[in-house]
Amino acid sequence: MVLQARVRHVSTDYGTEQAAMQDYMHAGEVRASTLGNRGPIRFNTDGSLAQDIREAYWRCGFYVFTDVLGPIELADIEADVSDIIDRLPVREGSVADARGRSAIGTDCVAPTLFWARPLSDPFGGTDLANGRHPVRMYEPRPVQGAPEKIVYLILGTLQFSEACLRLYGHPELLQVAAAINGSDFTPFNEALFIKQPGLGSSVAWHQDGVTHWDSPSFDQGIHGFNFMAQLYGSTAANGLWMVPGSHKLGKVDIKAMVEQAGSDRLPDAVPMICAPGDVGICNRQTLHGSFANTSADTRVTINFGFHRRASVLGVTAGGVHNARATYDAARIHERARLIAYAIDARRQRFPHEMPYVYQPFIGEEDNYRWDSRLRNGLKDYNLLDLSI
Questions:
Q1: Domain that holds residue 104
Q2: How many domains does the chain fold into?
Q3: Could you read off the pLDDT of 80-105 as tens digits, one per residue?
Q4: Does pTM top 0.85 for this prediction?
Q5: Crossing angle, helix 171-181 and helix 329-349, to 10 degrees?
Q6: Distance from C-alpha of 66 to C-alpha of 69, rounded to nearest angstrom
Q7: Strand blocks (E) in 59-180
Q8: CATH number at residue 234
């Protein structure tokens, strides 16, 4: 693909940890192959999600849906991602891109662009994101001449890409969201992860949930889930790793687990192996993270998450992806308008598909017909993210 060929490749490895990492990744691939949690999306005749998929998701805390996105949609996404990368600031703090144009995201109030040193761990061992990344990952040494910093994460992506907006309205994925979180499911947030070869930073081991660990109604799904669509696929070297079943355990002691393992290579973790067009679903309570990308392969992941309505309505939360607030019905409805726009945008691009019918907006569809001229109205929409 064009973008993958253009992304800078810097050859490096894990230094003194290289042999241990190679052994660990191979063993993780073997463990992942035994889980029985991958395959095409399948529904029963009544529209419910196939029982074996539901069972595997709740058993493992994640599932890989294969062959979800076809070549036309992947090409659309790649073109938009390529444009986003072209429009990034030439360096951190700059308001111009490499061509001297106004850079993407620099006029946003909401958190948008996240920078890190190549192969570093920007969150691990810090108080950032409510301190949910308590242990720093091993940081390989980048090669001489690597850029000082790179953008590895972009939030609020639906305002920058109509292809990502259309993906957000994918009828089968939204049907899965309803099967997991109920037909009145709500948004969470959206993100774009870019793991460049020889440069991409790690994401320290963490659980996404913050709000409901001590809730009297706590269960294995109370913090929702993320879809993770893969533009180029993901490997053990550049992809997400998860500890199967950890979503059932409540808030785990990550420091103790790493100390017991003797390194950041948790022995029970497995990589989420994906081909281009596969979409993973990951329970937000599952312990997960990713290593610095010293491989020759690019990973571009389009993230978008959903919650149960009961997990957010009337709840006071935030502080990670948005300012702390109480999520009332009006705010949930305003944030959920992105789902309605996405469904209509997708209907226009893929008229052969049966559009998803989003229960909370039944009867309001004509108020949310998508027109590309509406994109300016999406600016900073992620200030209303529903972060728990």
A1: 2-309
A2: 1
A3: 999 999 999 999 999 999 999 999 99
A4: yes
A5: 150
A6: 9
A7: 62-65, 113-116, 150-155
A8: 2.60.120.620
